[in-house]
Amino acid sequence: MTIEVKFLGATGEVTGSCHLVTVGKHKILLDCGLIQGRAKDEERNRVAFPFDPASIDAVVLSHAHIDHSGRLPLLVKAGFRGAIYTHRACRDLCRIMLKDSAFLQQKDAEWENRKRARKGLEPVDAIYTIEDAQVAMKQFKGMVYQQKKHILPNVTLQLNDAGHILGSSIVELWLEDEGQQRKLVFSGDLGRSGMPILEDPEVITEADLVIMESTYGDRLHRSWSETQKEISEVLSTATNGSGNVLIPAFSVGRTQEILYLFAKYYKKWRLDRWQIFLDSPLAIEATRIFMNNSDLFDADMQTLLLKNKQQSILPNLHISRTTNQSMALNRVHSGAIIIAGSGMCSGGRIRQHLKHNVWRSDCHVIISGFQASGTLGRKLVDGAKHINLWGESVQVAASVHTIGGLSAHADQTALKNWYGNFNNRPRLVLVHGEPRAQECLANVLQSELNADVIIAKRNQKINLLKL
C-alpha cells in the first residue's frame, strides 16, 4: 500500500512549486513551476526532472502563475502524456502565460548565444519554445469550482476558490489504495479576504494532511484602507513633482487590481491629472480573459462593471500594444503612470522604463508585489543605489515605495486562520516560503494552535498511511 507525497520544489524558497503524490501505482504532480530569481537559480530549470515524466499519470495545477505552471511545456516535451487538470479560467490564462514564458526563454537564449558566439562557445537551446507551450496546452482539462471529478482509479479531485488570482484553486484530493483512504489538501497560493475583484478563499474543514504556502508567514499586511491611503499619498507626492510613476506589476492579478482601484478611486485620488498607460501585451490579454470570466468576480466588482456600462470609469487609460507605442513613452518625462511587466522587474517592458526614469529624482516607483531573492525588483526594495540594465550601471535616484498591502498572498494571520478552520488539526507541511517566513509561521502555529508543523525539505517524503 502506498499513499505518499514527495516535495520537489518551493522548499525553502518561493518559486518552483512541484510536489509528487503517489497512490498505489499512480503518480500525480501538484504544480510544475519555473524556478525564478538569480541566474544560478534559474539555471536549475535545465536540470532533468527527478522522476520519469512519462511515469506521471496526471497533473493538478493550482493556478497560472509561472512559478506554478512554467515547467509544464518542459514536462510534456520530456514525455508526460497525461491530463493537466485545473480551473477553466486558469487554463485560459495559461494559454497566454506559457506562450509568453516561452517567448522570454527564446529571447534569453538568443541573448546568451550572441555572447557565447563572441567567446567561441557552443550555443544553448531555449528551455522550451512557443511551439512546446502550444503542444502542452492540448493536455489541459478545464474544471469548475466545487465539482468532484474522478481523475484516476481511486483518486478524486475537487477545486475550490483560493481567491489569489483568477482561476486559482485550493486542491482537495481523496486518495485510496487497497481499501485505505486519506484526504490531502493543497492550499496553492491563498488570497486575502476582502481582496479586490475576487471572492474570498474557500474554507476547508477536513484533511489528513495539509500542504500550505507560507510566502508571508513572518508579516502582517496593512489593511485595505491603510493601503488605499498609502497609494493616494504616493500619487499626491508624485503630482507635486514633475516626473513619472512606474508600477512594475504582475500581468495576471496585480495589474487588474490596480486598474480596479484606479477606477474605483478615480475622483478621490484625482487621477484625471495623469495619463495612465498599460504597457504590457500579456497584461492586456489577461485583462480580456478576466472580463470573459466575470462570473468569478465579487459583488463590488460586479457593481463597478455595471457602472462601466453606463460611463467610462477610467477615461485616461491608454493601451500600449506595440513595441513602437511602448518606446514612445521614453519621450514622456512627466505626468505618466506606467503599469508594465514584469512584476519583479526581471524582464518585460518595465526594464526599459526604469532605464529612462529611475535615475531621475522626480520619478516614483511603486513596488506592488512580492520580489523574490535575486531579482531586480528585490534590489530596488532593498535600497540599491545602482542597478544593472543590459550591462549598464544605472543610478537609482527615484523614490521607491513598497505597497505591501496590495499583496495577493495571505499574511501570517490569514494563513493561521485558514488552517485553523480544520476540525482535526491535521499534520501541516509548509512550502512556498523563504526560511525566515516559514520558521516564524511554524512557531506561531505551534504555539497558538498546537499544530503539528513540518517545514518541507527538498525530496522529503510523507507517508499518509502513517499519519
Task: Please outline the helices and strands.
Layout: E1 3-9, E2 18-23, E3 26-30, H1 39-42, E4 58-60, H2 66-69, H3 72-77, E5 83-87, H4 88-118, H5 130-137, E6 140-143, E7 149-152, E8 155-161, E9 169-177, E10 180-186, E11 209-213, H6 224-239, E12 245-248, H7 254-264, E13 275-279, H8 281-292, H9 299-308, E14 317-319, H10 323-328, E15 336-340, H11 350-357, E16 364-367, H12 376-381, E17 386-389, E18 392-395, E19 399-402, H13 412-420, E20 427-431, H14 435-449, E21 453-455, E22 461-463
Parallel strand pairs: 3-4, 4-5, 5-6, 10-11, 11-20, 12-15, 12-16, 13-14, 13-15, 16-19, 20-21
Antiparallel strand pairs: 1-2, 1-22, 2-3, 7-8, 8-9, 9-10, 17-18
What is the number of strand segments?
22
The main pleated sheet reads as: 7 strands, mixed
Instruction: Enter the CATH topology name of the largest domain.
Output: Metallo-beta-lactamase, Chain A
- The overall average pLDDT, rounded, is 94
Shape: globular
Q: Which CATH class of the largest domain applies here?
A: Alpha Beta
CATH architectural grouping of the largest domain = 4-Layer Sandwich
CATH superfamily of the largest domain: Ribonuclease Z/Hydroxyacylglutathione hydrolase-like
CA-based gyration radius: 22 Å
Number of helices: 14
Strand content: 15-25%
Question: What's the short version?
Answer:
The protein is α/β, with parallel strands linked by helices and 467 residues long. The protein has helices spanning 39-42, 66-69, 72-77, 88-118, 130-137, 224-239, 254-264, 281-292, 299-308, 323-328, 350-357, 376-381, 412-420, 435-449, and strands spanning 3-9, 18-23, 26-30, 58-60, 83-87, 140-143, 149-152, 155-161, 169-177, 180-186, 209-213, 245-248, 275-279, 317-319, 336-340, 364-367, 386-389, 392-395, 399-402, 427-431, 453-455, 461-463.
